């Protein structure tokens, strides 16, 4: 499912950094198919969007997976300048898009 989310996002968003974490294992009640994901996304697509618009944009891209695969989704969405300013403080373990191709 992580690869499906990643590939879907890559088709619609110019990704600078992304981290996809499955937090389902921390839930008391386990679901077989639907999972709890946290996404950290850094993109220049977010430059002219406020936080609400960013969330709507990402939810709209991933909405096809909510019925069957995603129980909940936590989003941390940054522009590149915001990320460069913030990332040393939080979210240190991220996957860089450049690392995917090496």
UniProtKB/TrEMBL annotation:
SUPFAM superfamilies: BolA-like (SSF82657). The chain crosses the membrane at residues 57-78. Belongs to the BolA/IbaG family. Keywords: Membrane, Transmembrane, Transmembrane helix. The gene is bolA. InterPro entries: BolA, BolA-like_sf, BolA/IbaG_stress_morph_reg. It comes from Buchnera aphidicola subsp. Tuberolachnus salignus. It comes from the Bacteria. Gene3D superfamilies: BolA-like. Pfam families: BolA (PF01722). The lineage of its organism: Bacteria, Pseudomonadati, Pseudomonadota, Gammaproteobacteria, Enterobacterales. This is Protein BolA. The keyword Transmembrane helix applies.
């Amino acid at each position: 499912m992580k690869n499906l989310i990643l590939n879907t996002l890559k088709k619609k968003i110019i990704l600078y950094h992304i981290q996809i974490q499955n937090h389902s294992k921390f839930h008391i009640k386990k679901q077989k198919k639907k999972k709890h994901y946290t996404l950290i996304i850094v993109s220049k697509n977010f430059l002219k969007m406020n936080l609400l618009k960013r969330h709507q944009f990402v939810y709209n891209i991933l909405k096809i997976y909510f019925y069957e695969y995603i129980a909940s989704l936590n989003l941390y969405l940054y522009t590149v300048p915001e990320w460069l300013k913030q990332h040393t403080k939080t979210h240190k373990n991220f996957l860089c898009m450049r690392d995917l191709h090496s």
